Structures are given as structure tokens and as C-alpha cells.
Amino acid sequence: MIRDGLFERFPVGAVYGMHNWPAMRPGEIGVNPGPMMAAADRVTIEITGRGGHGAHAYMAVDPVLVAAHIITAVQSIVSRNVKPLDSAVISLCAVQAGDPGAFSVIPGSATLTGTVRTFNPVVQDLVEQRLHDLCSAVALGFGASATVHYERIYPATVNSDAEAVFAADVAQSLVGEGHVVRDMEPSMGSEDFSFMLQVKPGAYLRIGQGGEGSCFLHNSRYDFNDEILPLGAALHASLVEQALPTTSN
Fold first, then answer.
1. Which is deepest, 91, 104, 107, 111, by most CB within 10 Å?
2. What is the largest CA-CA distance in the chain?
3. Neighbour count for residue 48 (Cβ, 10 Å)
4. Cβ distance 211 to 24 under 8 Å?
5. Could you tell me if 130 and 27 lie in one domain?
């Protein structure tokens, strides 16, 4: 949308968005000046070994063994390469290798896929480089090879300070001071609204929809709370009303 000229066709001074948040009670609104959600990157690690018979493993180069060591080794990037006061998550969430029916066959290759989450582009660069170096070195140590494909999908969602404060003030006018969280803890989740915040000032907010014990997002038991819709609509309308200059005859 942005590349297709959205803001050239429809010029705006600021952008605002919101997402329901099960960890907050209905009637609560949260925002934070600065980071709200992390950048999301996709990682694919292709490991090439040499297949063989499980009974004669010494004649093979086992990519499953290499994959296991890589899964463990990459966790050292966050604990030993990223500064303690910075934030990063590396999660390798899928392993594909071999055939469950071929229980005694060592496959020739294995693939790991996962995600990296960061707030700081410098940390993002560091993690990407360390993944390339570490995976290659671990695989080489077993006589195999590893290729890392790193795809940057969403940048970090970072609110501009003035617009975040303004949005909190507008929210307070609707729900009261005690129901607005002005220093909302950032989430390592990600959001494509971040692309808009890269080119326009604005703020991304969270609107409570559940509370303690509620099922979190992206869960098969998640149930959207329709009762928060009027507040969400009122918040959007109030942001527009209070942001636009008033005119009089």
C-alpha cells in the first residue's frame, strides 16, 4: 500500500492503530512511547550431510545430529552475544528430516525453520551474522554444511513519543486515568502497522478484551470479545476529533 502511493493519494499527518489484548481487562487501553512490538524475521537453515544406514552411522554424515547441535548452539547468541539490556529471541520451531517410516535410514539433509525477534536494528544485524557464522561452523565440525536463509519480514513497531502521549490523553478522556497504561510493556510479537510508523508519526495501542486467565492470541480457544467494539470505535473517532483542527464560521 505504501509503495503504491497510499500517503501520496491520501496525505495524513499521523497514523494510529490498535489491537485487542487478552491480558488486559475490557475498558483498559495501553500504549508506550517508543517500541511496542518487535521486528519479525524468518530463518531457514538447510543442512547437508551424507545419508546412510542407521546401523552403519560411521559411514554417514548425520544431518539430524548436526541439526540438534545447531538448535542448542544458536541459543548462545542471545545469552553470550547480545547485550543483557537489549532484547532478542531466537526460536527454531520446526525440524524436517528423514521419513518416519524409514526408521533406520539416516537422511542426507535436514531443514530447520524459525523466527528471530528484536527491537534494535543493530541487534538484528548482529543476530543475523552470528547465525550465518555459527551454523556454518557447527556443521563443518561434523563434516556437513549449513546454509542460512534470513528474511526480514516486519520491522519493529515503534511509536513516536508525541503521538503516543496524545493517544494516551485521548484514551484517558474516554475511560479515565486509572484505566490507561502509559508505559505498556513492549511485546516480542510483530505487526505490519510498523511499516506505516516508519514513514509517518503515530502510535499503536492495545485495547483490553479479556483479563487474567483469558486465552491469548493465536490460540484455537481464542474468542474475540465483541463488547469492546464500541470502545474501539470511540477511541478511533476521538483520536480524529481531537487531532484535527476545529473550524468556526
1. 107
2. 90
3. 15
4. yes
5. no
Q: What is the SS3 assignment for 244?
A: coil
Per-residue pLDDT band at 229 (split at 50, 70, 90): very high
- Per the structure, the count of domains in the chain is 2
Shared domain check, 33 and 119 = no
Specify the pTM: 0.90
User: Which of 134, 154, 174 is the last residue before a domain boundary?
Assistant: 154
| Residue found by looking up cell 509503495 in the block | 3
What crossing angle do the helices spanning 161-175 and 229-243 adopt, rounded to 10°?
120
pLDDT tens by residue, 90-139: 999 999 999 999 999 999 999 999 999 999 999 999 999 999 999 999 99
Contacts of 132 (CB under 8 A, 6+ apart): 148, 150
CA distances from 62 to 14, 128, 140, 169, 170 (A): 54, 25, 12, 59, 59
Q: What is the DSSP letter of 185?
A: P
Inter-CA distances, 126 with 35, 107, 122, 180, Å: 19, 32, 6, 36
